[in-house]
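Example: ABC transporter substrate-binding protein.
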Amino acid sequence: MSVTKRSHVLVAIAAACLSFAAGAARAEDGVLRVGIITDMSGQYSDGNGPGSVIAAQMAAEEIGGTVAGRKIEIISADHQNKPDVATGIVRNWIDNKGVDVIAEGVNSAVALAIQTVTRERKKLFLISGSGSSDLTGKQCSPTSVQWTYDTYASSNATAKAVVARGGTPWFFLTADYAFGQALERDASKAVTSAGGKVLGAVRHPFDTADFSSFLLQAQSSGAKILALANAGSDFRNAVSQADEFNIRASMQLVALQVTLTDVPALGLAHAHDLLFTDSFYWDRTPETRAFAQEFFKRHGAMPTAYQAGVNSALRHYFKAVAATNSVDSETVIAQMRKTPVNDFFAENGLVREDGRMVHDMYLMRIKKPEESKSKWDLYEYLATVPGDQAFRPLDEGGCPYVAKSH
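Written out as structure tokens, the predicted fold is:
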């Protein structure tokens, strides 16, 4: 080896050692670091974003700001809905900033990319805003927990309820990325298993402004149900433009995913009577109202399911750290799995070995304008779907870590 090449190798080794030493030093500095990676500026920022950071801060305060002798520090970043940006941030957090746990991760394509990094680095990833059921399926991780919902649960109860009321055949308007594709796939299976039919689908790009051509294709399909497999501004634009084209004259709109903050932005005049399934509603119980009122004082809006999920997931994580006196990912997640989740978000929730937190889901209807008494009085609770009926069975997801353990 030449002197020049040898010097380059030595420099690289020295840099790697310094980076490792810096990470190790930060890991032993008496601080537990939580990284909230979310959409701070894009179409999901209202339902996630700064509110998710506030939810995390509340969870830290609820346990007293310290756990297992470590001061809790919350840091955050905007992934801009770009997987490469997200993975760069997370690698830097883990390798150089001493971050112990990553949370949130809204946008399924982003979450799948982050999960690859946290799997490699053996760090915990508590997923709240991302819904693709692939996160606990073939792309699962032994150090991740998908907390709030997934595309299987969101579509399963809604599809079965609509088909039971005679709602068929179906046509899908689908966001063309991981989340939308998974939502369409899971809902299609639920429709057909319930005895309904699917006539087709049309896919639209992320962040679409003009849905006219897609809506006309749906209208000409002959389907009676138009299922919206999208979220954020895509969902809002699709619903409002569907009314412009008088789609409801021949088709029933079904929302496969609704975020609370979408509804005031869209308006009840457009959103009314949409059926959907969610994991949390702020006005459902005394416990949800107590959390929501404290959150509202800080954020000026009621919490979405994703923001509530961030708080609940971190509460459970902090309790596991306290119980084990450890921040080792494998130790903590083992404790999280064997401890039921009982808080304002879930009753007797269970963290499975595929990373799915199983809990009840709720069938909801968006109220008519005349039924709503205030800005955030938006949903009517219809029914509870037990967790073991809402979420995909453990043996059907294809998670390789589950297969190895049985």
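The radius of gyration is 22 Å.
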